[in-house]
Design a protein that fits this description.
alpha/beta; Peroxisomal Thiolase, Chain A, domain 1; two-stranded antiparallel sheet; 13 helices; 18% strand; globular
Length: 384
């Protein structure tokens, strides 16, 4: 397998994009990534998306997006892995180039969640869970995370407000990301008083639904750059899975898919935890941030909240997380999120992040994109 790199990145702002459809958002991110890479075409396109059929009655996104991005005729397919769809599309792009079958591949993640009712969106998101044994019982995706959060608090003796530092860190970083949906810091008081959605998950524990698209251009690492943009080496992108339903897991508070994907990624990359200088966690809910940090080996079981209280996950600390605001501050256009994480990690490694959130001397970072409540986990390691 050949070594691969990211040569171009592109993204739209995460917003409620009333004037743009999925094809427009995706094409905008793709064209920006191509311009950044200095390329005029590609051989393959992989489109990460979760809910186009459910919320927009539009499947067959590969050909549609390729056409509107001026790439008609190339190989183009949609990749779906629930909220992990974008990183799964990225892995396909990486593998196609690494195999030698493709010279230039583009991965784009795109989602529109804001044009339908809250009920329709909630129903759509619940399709990431087990339809027969969770969704049919009335469990929404928020409710599933509420069960996890309540169990975590019970097992480890934490209180609701102990999750606040994770949320506050994400929002503090998002203040400096021009593409973030929310650019305002929050206080402990605001967190404590936030509207309850599914006890103990409140509004500020939850990432906002949003519209957006992010894209990257992947080529062989030894390819000649066609622009002044600094390539970012892809050291690893690994996937692992677990059961969709929580009740089928050996331990609901252990993300087995996360632990396995991190172990595989570190082995493939030839790196250790000590080499990772920042971590773009999948903070769709504050409980998922804690579980991800622990399964990934950055905190002992039951210790993530204690480390957060000690400010060990802030910019300038031991392991900065959600450096551009994460899903919580930036927003969570589910099928695009994994590529937003990768684009933001590339910005960190290129040292072009805004000064307030730039990780000093960053040379190696990790992203983790989670599908469902941990059934699919894609961990990526990138290097300057």
């Amino acid at each position: 397998m050949q070594k691969t790199s990211i040569f171009g990145i592109g993204q739209t702002a995460v917003r409620e994009h009333w004037g743009m459809g999925m094809r427009d958002l995706a094409a905008t991110a793709i064209l920006d990534a191509m311009a950044d890479a200095g390329v005029e075409g590609a051989d393959a396109l992989y489109v990460g998306n979760m809910l186009s059929g459910t919320l927009a009655s539009q499947e067959h996104l590969g050909a549609l997006v390729a056409d509107y991005a001026g790439l008609r005729g190339i190989e183009a397919v949609k990749v779906e892995a629930a909220c992990g769809s974008a990183a799964a599309a990225f892995r396909h792009a990486m593998l196609s180039v690494a195999s030698g079958q493709v010279d230039t591949a583009i991965a784009v993640g795109v989602e529109k969640l804001t044009e339908m009712s809250g009920m329709a969106t909630t129903h759509g998101l619940a399709t990431a869970a087990d339809a027969d044994y969770e969704a049919s019982m009335g469990l929404s995706f928020v409710a599933i995370n509420a069960l996890l959060m309540r169990r975590y608090m019970h097992e480890y003796g934490f209180k609701k407000d102990d999750f606040a530092p994770l949320v506050m860190t994400a929002h503090a970083n998002g203040c400096h990301n021009p593409n973030a949906m929310f650019q305002k810091a929050i206080t402990l008081s605001q967190y404590s008083k936030a509207k309850m959605i599914a006890d103990p998950v409140n509004l500020l524990d939850s990432s906002p639904v949003a519209d957006g698209a992010a894209a990257v251009v992947v080529r062989r690492a030894d390819a000649t750059p066609q622009s002044d943009a600094t390539p970012v080496r892809i050291l690893a992108c690994e996937i692992a899975t677990d059961s969709l339903a929580l009740d089928n897991r050996r331990d609901p508070l252990w993300l087995e898919g996360g632990a396995k994907s991190v172990a595989k990624a570190l082995k493939t990359a030839g790196r250790s935890h000590g080499d990772i200088q920042f971590f773009e966690a999948h903070d769709a809910f504050s409980i998922m941030t804690a579980l991800s940090l622990e399964a990934s080996g950055f905190a002992e079981r039951g210790q993530a909240l204690k480390l957060a209280a000690e400010k060990q996950f802030e910019i300038g600390s031991r392991l900065p997380i959600a450096t551009f605001g994460g899903l919580k501050g930036r927003g969570h256009p589910v099928g695009a999120t994994g590529l937003y994480q990768i684009v933001e990690a590339a910005q960190q490694l290129r040292h072009v992040a805004p000064d307030q959130i730039q990780v000093a001397d960053a040379t190696c970072g990790m992203t983790q994109n989670i599908g469902g409540s941990g059934a699919t986990v894609i961990t990526t390691i990138l290097e300057k």
